[in-house]
Amino acid sequence: MKKIKIKVPATVANLVCGFDILGMAIHEPYDEMELKLLDSPEIIIRHEDHFGLPENPSQNVAGVVLQNIQQHLKLTKGFEVTIRKHIKPGSGLGSSAASAAGAAFGANVLLGNILSNEELVHFAMFGEELASGVRHADNIAPCIYGGITLVKSSSPIDIIPLSTPNLFVAAVHPQVEVKTSDARQILKKNILLKDAVEQWGNIAGLVAGILKNDIPLIGRSLNDVLIEPIRSILIPKFDEIKMKSLEAGALGGGISGSGPSIFMLAETKETAERITQLMKSVYDEIEIESFVYISKINPAGIEIVEEINDENQ
Ligand SMILES: Nc1ncnc2c1ncn2[C@@H]1O[C@H](COP(=O)(O)OP(=O)(O)O)[C@@H](O)[C@H]1O
Ligand SMILES: N[C@@H](CCOP(=O)(O)O)C(=O)O
């Protein structure tokens, strides 16, 4: 029997200004997945969590990824997948990407590492297409490569892993659901050239700041003139949380992925703790339940917890 257990991290897509192209893996929260290689070509998905996600492989992002791998490689084998999800679907913390990337990664290990990272991203994007209607790779890439990644292009796939600054991430997930597909539909299809120029400056500044480990440059590049003004109206108290976090010492931050989670970068754990406390108290005041996370940027991405390769079982 060949079996693998993995830890699949949450991801913060967009990093404020880099819509669909930038993303980072974080340590908390993460999903647990177990994949077994089957002798028959069936795909079985089981959820040991309470989110009510579909277990029909054609409706589960992990299932469609495995179906595509199976078809492409003309496999006579199948997969049994058990998912313990801790990253709530619709959180903006890459819940669908975690299952999609975890399925591609785990299947590849079971098959003897025959696929490249670019191929894993290619197959995992079928899951994102099922979840949001769009083959975006900004959550998947950091999950698979770890750290912070730039999706220079998703067709053809061209992923640039950037470095991992030594920063803390404070995040809050208010319990309101924002589906990525809905949060994409409200965006404008056309943008003004002057706004595009400002956004290009921020993206280039952020990438340069990350590569040079120039923390103040990272901070002043975390601005979004295109997406945040539209999507933030879906997130209760967004402006107040952002303003208070900056006052409390955050370098900068904004909507995590398509929301409703909000993330902030901080230089110290103490600052990150102050920020999560204030995030929680803002939501407590208006009686919206919220979960907060303090994390660091996760340089490893998906981690193998256990690998069993026992021909006798
Ligand atoms: N294994 C899975 N994990 C998470 N979401 C899944 C999974 N399979 C299917 N989905 C669907 O994907 C959607 C959640 O994806 P999305 O809105 O992108 O949330 P997130 O921002 O947390 O990734 C939901 O409609 C959910 O039913
Ligand atoms: N670039 C995408 C990212 C969606 O991330 P998610 O964590 O909300 O699935 C977008 O902004 O739509």
From TrEMBL:
It comes from the Bacteria. Residues 207-283 form the GHMP kinase C-terminal domain. Gene3D superfamilies: 3.30.230.10, GHMP kinase, C-terminal domain. Signal peptide: none annotated. Its main location: cytoplasm. Pathway: Amino-acid biosynthesis; L-threonine biosynthesis; L-threonine from L-aspartate: step 4/5. GO terms for molecular function: homoserine kinase activity. ATP binds at K88, P89, G90, S91, G92, L93, G94, S95, S96, A97, A98. Its EC number is 2.7.1.39. PANTHER family: HOMOSERINE KINASE, HOMOSERINE/4-DIPHOSPHOCYTIDYL-2-C-METHYL-D-ERYTHRITOL KINASE. This is Homoserine kinase. It comes from Chryseobacterium herbae.
